[in-house]
Amino acid sequence: MDALKNPVGWFEIHVADLDRAKKFYEAVFQQSFSPLPTGDLQGLMFQGDATQYGCNGALILHPMKQPSTEGALVYFSCEDCEVQATLATQHGGRVFKPKFSIGPNGFIAIIGDSEGNAIGLHSNH
């Protein structure tokens, strides 16, 4: 029997302006990006390590996909999600739901990015 694996292996956050989104995610999450070879699509991949917990993903400019607060919600791991919520408001985002407890599983907050997407933040404290 195969070892149990996390169900998500990749995520894409759709954007309307790749440069604006890059600046937002760099500022809020102190992330750097590398170009994503996607054929006809433009994309920037988050820096990550495939051997570590979680999955990696990219910002994607796609002609058939628009940023939205609807649909799947991607959660970013943080030391303290309140810090990233504050940074989001300072860099063109907004807070939909401030940091709150989810019991023994830590804390979450829901923010809006510079493109109009809703994204989640999770921290243990």
Question: Which labels suit this protein?
Answer:
125 residues, alpha/beta, 2,3-Dihydroxybiphenyl 1,2-Dioxygenase, domain 1, 4-stranded mixed beta sheet, 2 helices
Number of strands: 8
| Count of domains | 1
The main sheet comes to: 4 strands, mixed
Strand order of the largest sheet: 1-4-3-2
Q: What is Rg?
A: 15 Å
Strand content: 25-35%
Q: How does the helix and strand content classify structurally?
A: alpha/beta
Q: State the share of residues found in helices, binned by percent.
A: 10-25%
Query: End-to-end distance, in Å?
Result: 35 Å
CATH topology: 2,3-Dihydroxybiphenyl 1,2-Dioxygenase, domain 1
- Outline type: globular
In a nutshell, what does this entry contain?
18% of the residues lie in helices and 34% in strands. It contains 2 helices and 8 strands.
Provide an overview of this structure.
The chain is α/β, with parallel strands linked by helices and 125 residues long. The protein has one domain: 2,3-Dihydroxybiphenyl 1,2-Dioxygenase, domain 1 (Roll). It has a 4-stranded mixed sheet with strand order 1-4-3-2, covered by helices on one side. Strands 5-8-7-6 form a 4-stranded mixed sheet, with helices on one face. Strand 2 and strand 3 form a beta hairpin. The model has no long low-confidence stretch (mean pLDDT 91).
Q: Helices, strands, pairings?
A:
Elements: E1 10-14, H1 18-29, E2 33-35, E3 42-46, E4 56-61, E5 75-77, H2 81-90, E6 94-101, E7 107-112, E8 118-123
Helix pairs in contact: 1-2
